[in-house]
Amino acid sequence: MQSSWPKAIGWIFEWEGSDVNISAGEPGGISKYGVSLGTYREHCAKHGLPEPSFDDIKNMTADQASAFYRTAFANFIHFDDLPVGVDYRLLDVTIQLGLGGGPKLFASRLGQWATADMAVLASIARTINDTKALALSIGDGWIAIKSQSPTWLDYTDDHGVKQRGHGHGWTNRNVAANTNALSLIGATS
Questions:
Q1: Secondary structure of 120-161 in HEC code, one letter for each residue
Q2: E strand or H helix at 110, and its extent?
Q3: What is the rounded CA–CA span in Å between residue 99 and residue 106?
């Protein structure tokens, strides 16, 4: 396991939180540590594991969530093969954009417009001399995508209730994640 994993997952948990979120907006109606029941069910089905229940998410521990993120996301993006700092930044973005969106954004930041295997992208990333610029570029790409969301600014939900937009929170998360990534890079350079 790469040395940045404990810090990376800790920072992700700071944003995702340990509170149970029961909401119609969550895939499966519930999430904890940012793990939604819908996403967890897909993961378990893919790996031949028993179908998880509402209570499995409600009772999920930090260790279980960490193991899920390691298996479902970190391994997929080749976290351990990426430059330190870029690994964390890409993990956070992939958790937010999904297994298709995060790698697609990463490929574009590497100048790879064709679909590329994550192992290939990790190999290309290791040749980049300025990992700080690459990590920040991943964050810039993520916030550009999020700023196009209809919930960036205040909005009215499907029930006619005025909701506060997510743009402020996403911007704060991006700034914090960039700062964290730079601290990892600074610790290894």
A1: HHHHHHCCCCCHHHHHHHHHHHHHHHHCCCCCCCCEECCCCC
A2: none
A3: 11
For the beta carbon of residue 119, count every other beta carbon within 10 angstroms.
Answer: 11
> Please, what is the end-to-end C-alpha distance for the chain in angstroms?
19
Q: Which element (helix H / strand E) includes 66?
A: helix 62-69
Nearest one of 48, 52, 49 to 37, comparing CA atoms:
52
Q: What is the DSSP letter of 162?
A: E
Longest dimension (CA), the chain: 51
DSSP H or E stretch at residue 65: helix 62-69
Q: Can you tell me the distance from the alpha carbon of 167 to that of 165, in angstroms, rounded to the nearest whole number? A: 6
Tens of pLDDT, residue by residue over 62-99, are: 999 999 999 999 999 999 999 999 999 999 999 999 99
pTM above 0.85, yes or no: yes
Phi, psi of 8 (to 5 degrees): -60, -50
Among candidates 76, 159, 89, which has minimal Cα distance to 119?
Answer: 76
Residue 149's φ and ψ, nearest 5 degrees, are -70, 140
